[in-house]
Design brief:
The chain has helices at about 1-10, 35-40, 50-60, 70-75, 80, 100-110, 135-155, and strands at about 20-25, 85-95, 115-125. With about 160 residues, it is α/β, with parallel strands linked by helices.
Length: about 160
């Protein structure tokens, strides 16, 4: 959703300046599946079947999955991506979304956006939010790093 909000702000010429984008294990392509969907089709935690259900629940019309707002990896133009703020993408090491998250980060980099792509090896999808694991060393370190990026961007 954060990616779509940025695109809508650009499209509507809203008078806002976004200074930093932080993405945790983002969905960036609802139209096609990356190879990591096959690798992690049975999880752990997030499965291909669950992702299929979620995408179908949020976007039941398959045509709605083929546009820049719902699949920015494939459909957002390089010009649009070049207008994005500096971006940090945190990926889970065992997640069907690794492929599309990495590919989106690389597209941002190619468009000239200051973009960091960071992989948390061994972590499952939602590792910074799930109660049983959000207090692990990796989850705490990632949240601290995200907060530091935001503080720096805001000049705090």
């Amino acid at each position: 959703m954060a990616i779509a909000v940025i695109q809508l702000a650009h499209t509507r010429d809203l008078p806002i300046k976004l200074c930093q984008l932080i993405l945790f294990y983002p969905v960036t392509d609802t139209a096609e599946k990356s190879a990591t969907y096959t690798i992690y089709k049975d999880g752990p935690y997030l499965t291909e079947r669950t992702m299929d259900w979620m995408i179908g629940a949020f976007l039941p019309n398959e045509e709605d999955r083929r546009n820049a707002l719902t699949s920015p990896l494939k459909y957002a133009s390089g010009e649009e991506l070049s207008r994005f703020p500096p971006t940090t993408i945190f990926l889970s090491g065992t997640d069907p979304l690794i492929g599309e998250g990495r590919a989106f980060g690389l597209r941002l980099q190619k468009a000239g956006v200051e973009t960091a792509i960071l992989m948390a090896d061994g972590q499952i999808h939602d590792y910074v939010m799930l109660e049983p694991i959000r207090r692990t060393a990796t989850a705490k370190a990632v949240v601290t790093l995200a907060a530091l990026h935001l503080k720096r961007a805001l000049g705090v």
